[in-house]
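Entry 12.
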Amino acid sequence: MSAVTTRVCRLYGKGDIRIERDPVAALEDGQVLVRIGAGGICGSDLHYFQDGGFGPIRVREPIILGHEVAGTVEALGSAVAGLRVGQKVALNPSRPCHQCRYCRESLFQHCLNMRFYGSALRFPHEQGGFRDVIVADAAQCMPVGDHVTLGEAACAEPLAVCLHARSQTDDLAGSRVLVTGAGPIGLLCVAVVRLASAAEIVVTDLQDATLAVARRMGATRTINMLNEAEALESYNADKGTFDVAFECSAAAPAIKAAVLAVRPRGVIVQAGVAGDTAVPLNLLVGKEIAFRGTHRFHAEYAEAVRLIDSGAIDVKPLITHTLPLAEAAQAFAIAGDRSKAVKVQLAFV
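Predicted 3D structure (tokens):
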């Protein structure tokens, strides 16, 4: 009998993406076979495709991309409880070891042996979720209701990133918040901040199209830094205005703008990732600003699924394009054009 196979979206190197077939592993105890329905192209996927990696992380062998995925349970291994065939699930791509020093300290996002779908950080690389069917641990499967589309459920991963970013701050109720960069992470930060009852949410970007989505997500004001940068400068008066800034672009000018606009003893949460980047340390020190990094998530994934399932956060405005897996190369090209796209997803049909 021939082995069961699945289509996969595999990257061989910069710009070289291929749809191929791989065998499907047999189910083991505690595992679930999930038929993937939707997968979002993340910034890291895009960096792998456009540049062959980002920072020191390079693609050194063919890798199946994708970590923002959701699907339908197709089969259950033994010893699986709480899931049923036909159930929609979001798949948590994060699999910490639960044994290293950071896992023992409950800092699971810093696991020394982390296995994360579609990541080239380790070698051999961790293969990802852009495939028709995948064998996953039951613990990775977070059920959603039938009223939630698989495209919406696939947004749980970037939403979890933003919920973890929010955890780097104090209570945001009544606060004034700046979000620099209106990509998917910036836009979901807007939704999270709005849910936290911030009084004012100002969003900056270079594209009118993404700023329009920011207003739909809850921004009280948007500023296009290409043609109205002076509008942000008014927030710099008297050492700054904003209590908190979520910096989601990793661009040196945006980081400086955030430092200028945040008030003394404010907080900047750095969500955007890049290589070595200039930071105005004199202003950080002089204004006693807390500059905090934020990395992935852990418990926030379940919270993200709950917020999407309940409708507390509507992720639909983010999903601007959906293309079939066979058109993956075109999907990646569209995802690289921020004047047109926010979140591009692959449909597995």
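Annotation: The mean pLDDT is 96. The chain has eleven helices and 20 strands.
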